[in-house]
Amino acid sequence: MRVLIVEDDPLLADGLTQTLRRQGYRADCVGSAEKAELAVGQEEFGLVILDVGLPGMDGFELLRRWRAIGQAVPVLVLTARDALGDRVFGLNLGADDYLTKPFATEELLARVAAIARRARNQSSMRRVHGPLALDMGARRASLDDKPLDLPMREWTVLEVLLDNVERVVSKEQIVTAVCTWEDDMSPNAVEVYVSRLRSKLEPAGIVIRTVRGFGYMLEAFAPPGA
What we know:
Shape: elongated
Distance between the termini: 24 Å
């Protein structure tokens, strides 16, 4: 799991970074909320360890902004503010956990591991590809944080492509995945569903490429200008 540490104390930030790396996490560190906001906007993190007392924008305000725009990255608030009101305020803003300074390294690692377990369980129910998100449990899709209408067969075709990003999927593979034994669907029908998906996804930069004679390939998402 990739972890972003947002801490302006260089000594503590370095200690946290090295501790997490020794445990097998990929840890990065920034010293301000503004830099954290930029980092999370550009990269995907499994957890943010967020100090509250940051220069400029504080951690609570950053957390409020993230949750207001639907940014769901798990956040462990790490702060010297140990009052009950502060803890309740942080959790109500959308923090996943709250740990006060000073803290025991063993407790921090246990809390990080717990969040990682929850994230693994949730990720199996959620698929993300650039601006596209599929909630597998609720059967809801969104594109650029707006609801996306996907009839069942379009959903299933998209699932197959998402399972094989940057790999060619034949029409026959798609038919097998979409149809039960009692169903019937021709390879030509696959073209129709792929065409419908393209019309919905390509304006957001998601590309389904036709590989003539073989099938289709969902390209890795590349943000505009990348």
